[in-house]
Design goal:
single chain, alpha+beta, DNA ligase i, domain 1, D-amino Acid Aminotransferase, Chain A, domain 1, OB fold (Dihydrolipoamide Acetyltransferase, E2P), 3 domains, seven-stranded mixed sheet, seven-stranded antiparallel sheet, globular
């Protein structure tokens, strides 16, 4: 556990080369079960055992004698509960138990009745060295995000395991339950899991090209979610780009896939079909929120795949073959899904025209892929590009501000934004990104100086600051007072040139809804 706490500290303070070196040192020296759990925590970003924040704050109060209100104020300033607890506690513990021991202890703590957990937490804190408290608290809070990308993790493991980084990254996909046996399987190069997907190849933004357009394959960028269908032997499973197994949510897709006669791994866009056509993302969201969709909802909103790449066929990994060759094999494959249409264009002006008209096809823009490109791992520039539509936008007024988390814990950087309706502001979105650090600091200073009322951590401000809000889509919503929800809202710019009274109205937003919803 001490070695893992030291690793955690190094990962937060080092640059990439230092992080890789620290990871290599840890995994070369760690016992197999500790190595497996460390890999799980760094790869998944979460602990398997989460203790409630209220219980932890109560335990701090019992251990230190501090009132709960002061602990809450400290948490609001620090922005991280695990760090807040570690800063307030003083431990003389000497325990030197391994990481996997504490994972098991926390599982036992989680199983205790709620009224017994507080005293047990206090007891545990007294046994743990001060230097390990922060990481131990991270295990309790469940959130284990640390500044190490999966690519860096795979590079470090590649050195330890003496295997290519992309191969290691592939074995981290899908189901990986931490154990000594799982670590040994990773070392041997055999995950033992038939349903394992491949790491997704991600596109970068298009910035133009002087090459002939016929060097590329052009497709619509559909407004669904990325997915891989894996069929190997008796195993059939569906994975999202977020590496979540989504079999239970889409039994209709798996039912259709039963008809595929060969083993294969297909890269695709998961969509909902309406009248035989690709439906809106709003329709897909109604399916995404259901872990076990009823027969009625499956009939009303049938899910399907629009397939555009073949990564494996009959056990053969096709990813190093050029896209044109993989496409020909995909076109010959018998499957029950839609095949992504390749768009015929003669020049880049036609590509731009297709992009401009993409919304009419339920698309976000176009995809531009080199015909000779392999299927790479992660976001590698040069082969696959996304040429997205310009975002929809409205000028909106700041209504409320709330402090952020982490390095924004002392800044009001989370904003509730509204449009005018009958001389009143109606909230239409929350936004957390888009401003520079200096702009956020200026807005934070303004919020603190112009607060009208406080509602816990939220501050109401006068309707004066105007921002241009960009978003990818707009849809009806019964959960929002405005009747509207926006997809991926973010601030495009601070309109310091515009008075609040000239911001957009709810009628303007409804007009966008009618045109693009």
């Amino acid at each position: 556990m001490n070695a893992f706490a030291e690793l955690f500290a190094e990962l937060e303070s080092q640059k990439n080369k230092g992080k890789i070196a620290a990871l290599v040192r840890f995994f070369e020296q760690a016992e197999p079960e500790d190595a497996a759990w460390a890999l799980h925590l760094l790869n998944e970003g979460k602990s398997p055992t989460r203790i409630s924040g209220a219980r932890m704050r109560e335990a701090v109060s019992v251990s230190t004698g501090l009132p709960l209100w002061l602990i809450e104020e400290s948490y609001a300033m620090v922005g991280d509960l695990a760090e807040t607890c570690a800063l307030l506690l003083r431990s003389q513990g000497q325990s030197e138990q391994p990481l996997h021991h504490w994972i098991a202890v926390l599982a036992e703590l989680k199983a205790l009745p709620t009224d017994e957990q507080t005293d047990k937490i206090v007891e545990l804190w007294r046994s743990i060295p001060q230097s390990q408290l922060f990481v131990f608290n991270k295990l309790m809070t469940g959130g284990f995000r640390v500044g190490v990308a999966r690519g860096l993790l795979s590079q470090a493991l590649a050195q330890v395991l003496e295997r290519p980084a992309d191969e290691v990254l592939g074995h981290l996909m899908g189901e990986w339950a931490p154990s000594e046996a799982a670590w040994q399987a990773l070392k041997s190069g055999d995950s033992g899991y038939q349903g394992q997907p491949y790491p997704f190849f991600l596109a970068t933004s298009w910035d133009g090209s002087d090459e002939p357009v016929d060097h590329f394959q052009i497709e619509y960028k559909l407004d669904g979610i990325r997915a891989q269908l894996v069929k190997r032997g008796d195993t059939l499973t569906l994975w999202s780009r977020g590496e979540e197994c989504i079999d239970a949510a889409f039994p209709d897709i798996l039912s259709k896939a039963q008809s595929i006669e060969v083993d294969c791994v297909i890269d695709a866009e998961l969509v909902v079909l309406q009248d035989g056509q690709v439906g809106s993302f709003n329709a897909l969201q109604k399916r995404l929120g259901r872990k076990k969709p009823s027969a009625n909802i499956q009939a009303e909103l049938p899910a399907s795949l629009v397939v555009y790449d073949l990564l494996e066929e009959n056990g053969q990994d096709l990813r190093l073959q050029p896209l044109a060759q993989r496409r020909r094999r995909l076109e010959k494959l018998s499957h029950p899904f839609l095949l992504s249409a390749v768009l015929n264009v003669s020049d880049w002006d036609e590509v731009e025209e297709l992009r401009q008209n993409a919304r009419a096809r339920r698309a976000e823009g176009v995809m531009i892929k080199r015909l000779d490109s392999p299927y790479r791992v992660g976001r590698k520039k040069g082969d696959w590009f996304k040429f997205k539509l310009d975002p929809l936008s409205l000028d909106v007024v700041l209504m409320y501000g709330q402090a952020g988390h982490g390095n924004r814990a002392n800044l009001f950087s989370d904003y509730t934004l509204g449009v005018w309706h009958d001389d009143q502001l109606v909230p239409v979105a929350k936004a957390y990104s888009g401003l520079t650090r200096s702009e956020m600091e200026a807005v934070d200073k303004w919020i603190k100086a112009n607060t009208l009322e406080r509602f816990g951590p939220v501050r109401q401000v006068p309707p004066e600051l105007v921002f241009e809000l960009g978003f990818e889509g707009i849809q009806e919503s019964t959960r929002h007072k405005s009747g509207i929800a926006m997809r991926f809202p973010r601030i495009l710019r601070w309109r310091q040139d515009k008075p609040a009274r000239e911001a957009n109205t709810l009628q303007d937003a409804q007009a966008l809804l009618q045109e693009y919803g």
